[in-house]
Write a structure and sequence with these properties.
single chain, alpha+beta, 5 strands, about 40% helix, RseC
Length: about 150
């Protein structure tokens, strides 16, 4: 189970809007100046994401919630997103290579195959979206922010 702590932004009628950040450790090691992962991480978004989940227990803004998703469904999703367009690209180019020797048409076949693979992956992901094993689950709910009061003694 892949786990991540998220902060409640808003809760209303059993639906919670959660915000979570990337737990990547990039940027703290000495090799960050020459690290490809660090550079790609800097090119992407700020690492803050939002998620809406059904949580029947009333929550307060600022409260922490641990959310998890099974590794198997995460791996299947990653394979679908990355491999399907790649396989489409290779198959589209290879099929046109068998019939046509003009490299421009082979290139166009590869691009078309990659686009078809992308749309196929999108359709399968839409189908998987309603399946329970691909939905994140709430593992733990932390105390509300105002539940603990610290009194200082003099």
């Amino acid at each position: 189970m892949v786990k991540e702590w998220a902060t409640v932004i808003h809760w209303q009628q059993g639906r919670a809007l959660l915000r979570y950040g990337s737990s990547s450790g990039c940027g703290s090691c000495q090799a960050r100046a020459t690290c490809g992962s660090y550079l790609l991480n800097k090119l992407g978004s700020d690492g803050i994401h939002q998620l809406e989940l059904e949580i029947l227990q009333p929550l307060q803004p600022g409260q922490k919630v641990e959310v998890g998703i099974p590794e198997g469904s995460l791996l299947r999703s990653a394979l679908l997103v990355y491999l399907t367009p790649l396989i489409g690209l290779f198959l589209g180019g290879a099929l046109l290579q068998l019939w046509i020797t003009n490299q421009l048409w082979v290139f166009c076949g590869g691009v078309l195959g990659g686009a078809l693979g992308f749309f196929f992956a999108r359709g399968v992901a839409t189908y998987w979206d309603n399946r329970q094993e691909y939905q994140p689950v709430v593992l733990q709910i932390g105390l509300p922010p105002d539940a603990i009061h610290i009194q200082q003694r003099e």
